[in-house]
Records
---
Amino acid sequence: MIKFILNNQTIKTEKEEGSSLLDFIRTEMHLTATKIGCREGDCGACTVLEGRLVDGVLTYKSIVSCLTPLANAHAKHIVTVEGLNLDDLSPVQNAMSESSATQCGFCTPGFVVALTGHLLSSHNSAAVNSLSGNICRCTGYKSIEKAAGKVDELKQNLLFGSEIEQMIKEGWLPDYFSGIKNRLVEIEAIMTDMDGILISGGTDIMVQQADGLRHKKFVRAGDFITDNVTEENGNIKIGAGITINDFFRNRLIMEHLPQLSEFLPLIASEQIRNMGTLAGNIVNASPIGDISIMLLAFNSSLVLENKDSRQRQLALKDFFVSYKKTRLKPDEIIKHILISADMDMNFNFEKVSKRTYLDIASVNTSLGITVDNKLIKEVYFSAGGVAAVPKFMLQSSGFLKGKELSIPTLESVLPVIQSEISPISDIRGGSIYKRLLLRQLFLQHFLKLFPDEFEQKDLLNIMITNSLHDEKY
Ligand SMILES: Cc1cc2nc3c(=O)[nH]c(=O)nc-3n(C[C@H](O)[C@H](O)[C@H](O)COP(=O)(O)OP(=O)(O)OC[C@H]3O[C@@H](n4cnc5c(N)ncnc54)[C@H](O)[C@@H]3O)c2cc1C
Ligand code: FES
Ligand code: FES
């Protein structure tokens, strides 16, 4: 049985675990303010809040209900816009109204819920960033940005960050929120049935298989893998169930891999990053998976565990076999991801997609590199969209290791890069275009990481003198 709290109502349901939370909210509960737009996580019309207890603290984040299997609502507090309503407009609703940020109103519940999620969150980014997964076809966005600015002002006035009690006192949240923590404690958090399809955030599997999953049983990976990040035996040990947002915002990760944070906005949207996990991104094995491409350049390893709790360790670069095929055995899960804690590397990530935000890559690439006295000591170069798997560029990385950091070195590795990849033409670009992109992005890594060593004009010269000939590929 699935048990959760929907707004102020405790729900106990035997509905299919694989049916979507969106359908449950609208069809079973008749809460129709949560809208159906794309059903693929792209538009944000179905945004709801998910509250859960993290180390005894009730925390909320925005998620898309269309990609949330009902099983993932278990032991959570799900909040729709109806559950945020007060006698008067809430301050977020007021900010939208005063800024003329709503016209036809179809998208408005999603925006209100996403902005309230921001108000409830403990991170300090601007409120407008919490709307990266919400689309409006009417307003032209300026008025919505204005409303987000008002939410920033509200958040600054909160005395203790985002304390729920304080928000209730201010009249920003309904009173029933004060009882939610104790009500969640009453629900056994773990679903004990261990037979079915493994699911983490659902953002991949619910899109790929949609209706096919409705009648299937699910095993929630989050019930037996952690999302903790610790430092152990010289490694940063990352619970593979960590969401993309929690990974990038984790204190240890920010301390050890400070270069990562600038790339967060390039991945999916706030809601998808609140749901999608590192494990899901890796097992999905998409040739353009951003997280896999980044982790390859940190020389990461995976800890895999089977049903008998037996563990083995595998380098991420050896995990991917062929298109969507990995070395994960049928009875195994990814338990942890390991990155050396002593790694003192320069890191860069580049991604070219049709849109800058909320789009998947045509080509993406990462470079992790250590240079000492102008000699390349360590180098981990990865590329996506240029092979059947997220590719660790073994030959190119090997070629660069030990070489001088210089224009001739960069020039001489370009043919190695081209010999190592096999892009195909598809909706995201032709094969020659992708070859060109990877060459450009590879050079861009060096321009960005070593601005004192390389000038744009030198790298442009390399590009011109190393043109790619169609007939060769
Ligand atoms: C709108 C949208 C935008 C997106 N944008 C991006 C983007 O910009 N960049 C990007 O890289 N991706 C993007 N994605 C893809 C997706 O969000 C990510 O790949 C995400 O990390 C998947 O994680 P998940 O937890 O949701 O996976 P799930 O859907 O839960 O699972 C995916 C697969 O992994 C398996 N699995 C899950 N956990 C484990 C485990 N611990 N051990 C073994 N197997 C496991 C599942 O059985 C399933 O086969 C986007 C998706 C959507 C819907
Ligand atoms: S319906 Fe578009 S994100 Fe859910
Ligand atoms: S107000 Fe009409 S879609 Fe946003």
---
Amino acid sequence: MIKNQIDKKLPLIIGSSGKTGMRVAERFDSNGKNYRAGTRHSEIPFDWYDTNTWQKALHGINSVYMVFSPDLAVPGAPAIIKTFVNVAKICGVKHLVLLSGRGEVEAQDCEKIVMDSALDWTIVRSSWFAQNFSESFFLDDIVRGQVFLPIGEIKEPFVDIEDLADIVFAALTDKKHKGQIYEVTGSKLLTFREVFTEIETATGRRIDYQQISMDDYVKFMSEASVPQDYIALIKYLFTEVLDGRNASLTDGIQRALGRGPRSFHEYAKATAETGVWDNPAQANVSA
Ligand SMILES: NC(=O)c1ccc[n+]([C@@H]2O[C@H](COP(=O)([O-])OP(=O)(O)OC[C@H]3O[C@@H](n4cnc5c(N)ncnc54)[C@H](OP(=O)(O)O)[C@@H]3O)[C@@H](O)[C@H]2O)c1
């Protein structure tokens, strides 16, 4: 599959090597459809923090899957999104599909910029990803069998990003999704303790989960040389977004796809079968 041809209009998949973008790109591949990859390391590079890369990456593009890194909640994100939307418009883009975060005021500011752009838009407003436990910051600790987190009995409707990628693919290929806000959650509210119990059941391995204070967690990350801006983001997500505000289910997946979400149980079972939670050698994903 030629991913970067510019002889006809293509979708640009920003973050095409990341958790959601990779899955969206896989759906284009398996359906025999072309797209352009948009990361700092793709053939035509795209960098949110380098406007010089934007016009070339947007040349010949009619729709964009917008995955902002590291997070729409970081300072300066709305200004970047605003500039990007204007450049996209000048470059002839017609449709923007924004990945947004549920319960994040800053992300909702970015949604508004996209919705006010006069371009077609689709918003996918997501709860926490189930795949954070297998492809992101929780993986190392799960493999070690010991998790310390500053989170109590708050419930979150973790969403399987296979469902999210199905929605983004549908939005980029079927005009009926234009003008829709899809707020997506999984099928069940779970505490972190319940999540680790699900993973224990799926893997047959014990996970010792302990709640610690935010101060101790920040100290622990600082001692592990985690960058300060990343610590600030984690602190924000764990205190503001995980305060119970998202402890409710939505029908976003049903509305977009005409079927319900994949359950956390199914995700845990399928993920355990890959062996990713068993092998310490694979436990090196940091963020
Ligand atoms: N994790 C969650 O639970 C959750 C929930 C709701 C919303 N979100 C949102 O999801 C987004 C992250 O999506 P994801 O998890 O699919 O991605 P990801 O796994 O974090 O991967 C990031 C992708 O973006 C690329 N990238 C990184 N920095 C970039 C930059 N400066 N310019 C252009 N591309 C860059 C990376 O490739 P290169 O490194 O090669 O550039 C990679 O393809 C964030 O906006 C976050 O707010 C996350």
